[in-house]
Write a structure and sequence with these properties.
By secondary structure, the chain is of the alpha+beta class. It has 4 helices and 12 strands. It has a 6-stranded antiparallel β-barrel. The protein has a 6-stranded antiparallel β-barrel with strand order 7-8-11-10-9-12.
């Protein structure tokens, strides 16, 4: 698990195709290497990757076909910058929100404009993810925990402060940029808990609760009828 608080940025220094999948090397001189071990997880633009080797000041990770197909990894090129976060520990501060590092889909930057000292971004998400994106809710964009300012169908707005622009790759976003999206995991579990059919033999009470729960989710935009 992660928090969505980016600690440093890295650089793609190698991309090696291996029998249909990919092995990548990320240079990350600012990571606390004394805390990194083989097998550790590092969120790389929001994608949870496992460290399989550690050349000086860098880490190597294998990327499966599934991950390549569902994320922006297929678009990464040499010298691209990426957001980095090491896995959450029991001592970590939860400054963002709970992030799994399992990307739900790829979004696109539709526009960017100045808003005082901040920048206002408008992005689109895959239609299948729209129901999980809520006004003032949390969303992860390339591994960064952000608050949704407005929602319109499958489009949403973010207001990004100067610190985030300088400390993440968001400063380089332009119209058309493709980004990894992870919706709030709590919203996914909530939907599952409230919409799963009542267990056999559980009686009419659970069925009534299930019906009312579906109505609640539909009313608040989590389900479509």
């Amino acid at each position: 698990m992660f928090t969505g608080i980016i600690k440093s940025m890295g650089t793609v220094t190698a991309l090696e195709e291996r029998s249909g999948d990919l092995r990548i090397t990320i240079s990350a001189p600012d990571l606390p290497w004394e805390e990194v071990e083989l097998g550790d997880s590092i969120a790389t633009n929001g994608v949870c990757l496992t460290v399989v080797a550690m050349p000086s000041g860098a880490y190597v990770a294998d990327v499966s076909v599934e991950t390549i197909n569902l994320t922006t990894v297929s678009q990464w090129r040499l010298n691209d910058r990426v957001n980095l976060e090491m896995a959450l520990t029991p001592q970590s501060r939860l400054g963002g929100h709970l992030v799994s590092g399992h990307v739900d889909g790829v979004g696109e930057v539709l526009s960017r404009q100045a808003d005082a000292r901040s920048e206002r971004f408008r992005l689109s998400a895959p239609q299948s993810l729209a129901r999980y994106i809520a006004h003032k809710g949390s969303i992860t964009v390339d591994g960064t925990s952000l608050t949704v300012n407005a929602v319109d169908g499958n489009e949403f707005e973010l207001n990004i402060v100067p610190h985030t622009l300088s400390e993440t790759i968001m400063g380089g976003y332009t119209k058309g940029s493709q980004v990894n999206l992870e919706v709030d995991v709590i919203a996914r579990y909530l939907e599952r808990l409230l919409t799963v059919p009542a267990a056999e033999g559980s009686g009419a009470i659970n069925a009534d609760v299930n019906s009312e729960s579906e109505s609640f989710l539909a009313e608040h935009g989590y389900l479509k009828r």
